[in-house]
């Protein structure tokens, strides 16, 4: 019954915006942060907790330790797009989906072929010299002979374009995201418990009456949603398209 309702919503929508969190990537075997098996709860060989090692101040003060952790725990080169990524690409091809807003840094939406992806927390695939601004790809970071990748032009440290703790989000990406959400006729939120701000606050900009939440667990926004589906996001989206 709920799936039929969801199918009907998609059929009658022409300006869908999707907002996704870690749950979109866990189905591609990328661990999230907060679940029982997530990065924050697993046994670690590192001296510091992940939220410390992924902070701006740790990056600046312990750059080598940061990169050891980052390369070990934050990059999943073998990960492939799952059903959620593929269905969103189909919806974009149909002209129904106008934008994907993601909290993930893994680039899987682009790998699936989606074009309009707004990355709130950046991407492991983009890296910038902190000194001269030269750009480098992920391969350069992984192939670096030194633990800390250095710029070929000036010798500066090459930093991943990912938003670390203590760093602000890119306001241009935030503003574009807000515009898409405000203008959406349907807003689908999936794979996120909506607890990480300011990203979670995007829901408050949606003024329509077709807010669809897809998440295995309950969220604090469930009571505001037009439709709640507590299941795997890949499974739900695939069933709706099929």
TrEMBL record:
Q: Where does NAD(+) bind?
A: 22, 26, 33-34, 103, 105-106, 121, 192-193, 215, 217, 233
Enzyme Commission number(s) of this protein? 2.3.1.286
Q: What is the catalytic activity of this protein?
A: N(6)-acetyl-L-lysyl-[protein] + NAD(+) + H2O = 2''-O-acetyl-ADP-D-ribose + nicotinamide + L-lysyl-[protein]
Keywords tagged on the record: Cytoplasm, Metal-binding, NAD, Transferase, Zinc
Cofactor needs: Zn(2+)
**Subcellular locations according to the entry:** Cytoplasm
The UniProt note on the cofactor reads as follows: Binds 1 zinc ion per subunit.
Stretches assigned to the Deacetylase sirtuin-type domain: 1-242
Positions contributing to nicotinamide binding: 33, 105-106
Sites where the protein binds Zn(2+):
129, 132, 151, 154
Q: Which InterPro entries match?
A: DHS-like_NAD/FAD-binding_dom, NAD-dep_sirtuin_deacylases, Sirtuin, Sirtuin_cat_small_dom_sf, Sirtuin_class_U, Ssirtuin_cat_dom
Keyword Repeat on entry: no
Chief subcellular location: cytoplasm
Instruction: List the catalytic residues.
Output: 121
Q: Which PROSITE patterns match?
A: SIRTUIN
Give the matching SUPFAM superfamilies. DHS-like NAD/FAD-binding domain
The entry's function note states:
NAD-dependent protein deacetylase which modulates the activities of several enzymes which are inactive in their acetylated form.
Q: Which PANTHER family does the annotation name?
A: NAD-DEPENDENT PROTEIN DEACYLASE, NAD-DEPENDENT PROTEIN DEACYLASE SIRTUIN-5, MITOCHONDRIAL-RELATED
Give the UniProt family note: Belongs to the sirtuin family. Class U subfamily.
The record ties this protein, via NCBIfam families, to: PRK00481.1-1
Q: What is this protein called?
A: NAD-dependent protein deacetylase
Q: Which organism is it from?
A: Clostridium oceanicum
Designated gene of the protein? cobB
């Amino acid at each position: 019954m709920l799936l039929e309702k969801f199918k009907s919503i998609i059929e009658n929508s022409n300006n869908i915006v999707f907002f996704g969190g870690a749950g979109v990537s866990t189905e591609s075997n990328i661990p999230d942060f907060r679940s029982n098996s997530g990065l924050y709860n697993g046994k670690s060989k590192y001296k510091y907790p992940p939220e410390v090692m992924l902070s701006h101040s740790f990056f600046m003060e312990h750059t080598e330790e940061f990169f050891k952790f980052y390369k070990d725990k934050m990059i999943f080169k073998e990960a492939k797009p799952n059903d959620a990524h593929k269905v969103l690409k189909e919806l974009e091809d149909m002209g129904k989906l106008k934008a994907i807003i993601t909290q993930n840094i893994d680039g899987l939406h682009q790998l699936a072929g989606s074009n309009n992806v707004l990355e709130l927390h950046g991407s492991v695939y983009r890296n910038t010299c902190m000194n001269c601004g030269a750009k480098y790809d992920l391969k350069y970071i992984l192939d670096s002979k030194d633990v800390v990748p250095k710029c070929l032009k000036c010798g500066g440290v090459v930093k991943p374009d990912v938003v670390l703790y203590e760093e602000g989000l890119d306001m241009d990406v935030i503003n574009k995201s807000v515009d898409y959400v405000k203008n959406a006729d349907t807003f689908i939120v999936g794979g996120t418990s909506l607890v990480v701000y300011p990203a979670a606050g995007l829901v408050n900009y949606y003024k329509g009456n077709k807010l669809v939440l897809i998440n295995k667990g309950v969220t604090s926004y469930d009571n505001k949603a037009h439709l709640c589906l507590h299941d795997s996001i890949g499974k739900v989206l695939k069933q709706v398209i099929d």
